[in-house]
């Protein structure tokens, strides 16, 4: 069908949509201290209440699951399809040009924390659903907009929804990534490896610290050693001698943990600069593990976990955070693997390599691969809508990152970012172009309609 009337209806509500998004952006919905009726704190609860009231105001049936997930629904039928978004946000941070909770529009862009991730697309979906209802378009399945409040801190909200036995969608999408459509998200295993220091070695290491997060290539690292040690000079390396200490600092190039080859790891750069120093002890074991099992490799070859799949890519391994203080030592590995990988083999080989270096598993989390075949009903419908709306012949994507879509079996990430668009999520001056937002909501409305038709 032509989506002309649907597109016109969505566009006619632009001012109302922007005002509703602005109202949600005004709520600082960063996760906070749990309270009896607010498991993720007052901010996420206020955002949840806001969306529920909006759903009621627009005339939809609504539901609240444990003050963790809310939903608004329209239609009849035994089956339900879903749009899954989230209303929690990362901390506001510093460096904003415009107020982060105001939703101000400047030069065609709306600024504010969450406008791109994910309040804009989630609140906007209410109006996409309203357009379908107001036009009286025939649908065979109910359409439910689901909005969680803990996506940024682990997605426990949706897990709670599932554990409570709530209705599962037969298919759906999360507008929390990019177009055209993400049919595969790699499986993930994250490790914290380490041990209590029992052997200080021959050269006393005071501290070794680097990294900001497990899923970020180590951008900076610092080593403090008692005494005078030789350091190989090189790019990004700074050496300071002070108070009988040698301080070595390394600057790297940050990159997301799903694409470590795009960065330069500061911890590896630093250890390579001191590789001729015979530290001995536990620090030496950790340094050797990092240099010998990781080094400049980002595909897990030496760990014995490299898999290559033509459709879904190859294994990636990211060293994120390193820490040694003379009492405890640890490092994090963010491992992502394609469709043909064996998760059990990945874990077995990684843990064996760590054990051989005297490192124990201090913490481990895993997330399964998301894979919805490109010829599936869901992907075919979404790609049809996208291609009609844009005139582009882009192909479905496989990515290393993870989205909310992993919460349900037949769900994929779909928008709202267009190819070549800016990466503004989690950044100061997060924004969304109003024209791109409205185009995305038109696509969402058409996708919701297509999913709801048999």
UniProtKB/TrEMBL annotation:
GO terms for biological process: L-arginine biosynthetic process; proteolysis. GO terms for molecular function: acetylornithine deacetylase activity; dipeptidase activity; metallopeptidase activity; zinc ion binding. The keyword Calcium does not apply. Gene3D superfamilies: 3.30.70.360, Zn peptidases. It comes from Candidatus Pullilachnospira stercoravium. NCBIfam families: dipeptidaselike, PRK07318.1. Belongs to the peptidase M20A family. This is Dipeptidase PepV. The gene is pepV. SUPFAM superfamilies: Bacterial exopeptidase dimerisation domain, Zn-dependent exopeptidases. The keyword Secreted does not apply. Its cofactor is Zn(2+).
